[in-house]
Amino acid sequence: METIKYIWTEEHFKEGNNTIYKVRSLSYPHIIALIQVNPHKYTVYMGEYKLKLGEIIMVYKLAKACLDDYNRYSS
Question: CA-CA to 40 of 20 to 30 Å: which in 1, 19, 32, 65?
Answer without folding.
Answer: 32
